[in-house]
């Protein structure tokens, strides 16, 4: 793929990735289940980005984590904290408003064309 | 099994000690999640391939990017480097010239000495350059680590945030007024050359005749003891010239003050020139006799021609340089 296009796409997706991850963490999930879930929704995520992202969100206090040792394989579960839930709601509102405006601009351009 | 452990080790060894265990545990459980129940070595390789380079993964886990000097300080670093390097190089050259004028040794031939000076000059610039580069880099690397900041807005060379106020202290430099850098360095080198020639005149300036072994020095033009006699005056002129060059380097354009400084320097140089050229013992008798024979004139006529001609040329060029300075300052 065109490298310029590729790097712009990565930049475009970077911000939305956090939002996608936060939206899936309303119930506790572990790393790989999150990858599968997002992939099922058509959101491809680089795993070397996701796992560090989860730890960063934890450090920022947006998610909490706990080890579940009951299964044969111990797994680290992440879930939104109270603060994370409130921030996620605000981000979601902002995103919906913003994408609405963007959609408007893009549609306008399609109808009238550019000079 | 072995590959997984090595992969985890390759990630965690790049991370701070306190996070290693937890990340290793999580990574192991993730890798096992990705593998089918019964797995082969090929399955492991595919999974590790998907996780990608351990260095990239470790980079993601680290909080701060690894910079020696980050974007916040880089601009200030480069500006200071550009400012200090040429000044340091010039000072090293001046020190070298001064050392050689003071402690000169007439056993070495002129050509050898010139080659030696050039070699020493180049070597000196390299050494000083490396020193400046090294210490400035160390200082900035320390600043980067001590004054950590998530802010990546570049700081000004004064290490403060940029303000509109800053613009008021920066002159807008017009093309006609500007003093190009090469002019400043050229004049510094010119100062070094004429001062060296002045103090070595009895080896350099004189009558040469081409012989079987190239040019042969026959007789010096000037009486070296007379030239040396004026050393405080020459030192003063050299000092004034270097000060003017540094002043030009800082201001980067002609100003009224600079034009006055330039006028004082040119006047002092003219006065000095007139005093020296009027000294009756300045030229060696051998030189005068030789020239009088060549031009078929009397020695006293020759002397007055040289004196009057020299003074006219010197004064005319000094007047032009003074006038040019004021003209540029006025633009």
TrEMBL record, chain A:
Pfam families listed in its UniProt record: PadR
Xref: InterPro entries: Metal_resp_DNA-bind_regulator, Tscrpt_reg_PadR_N, WH-like_DNA-bd_sf, WH_DNA-bd_sf
Alphabetized PANTHER family for the sequence: PADR-FAMILY TRANSCRIPTIONAL REGULATOR, TRANSCRIPTIONAL REGULATOR RV3488
Domain Transcription regulator PadR N-terminal: 19-86
Protein known as: PadR family transcriptional regulator
SUPFAM superfamilies in UniProt: Winged helix' DNA-binding domain
UniProtKB/TrEMBL annotation, chain B:
One Pfam family per UniProt: HAAS
Transmembrane segments: 74-98, 110-143, 184-208, 228-247, 259-277, 302-323
Coiled coil ranges: none
Keywords from the UniProt entry: Membrane, Transmembrane, Transmembrane helix
Protein name, UniProt field: Membrane protein
Native organism: Lysinibacillus odysseyi 34hs-1 = NBRC 100172
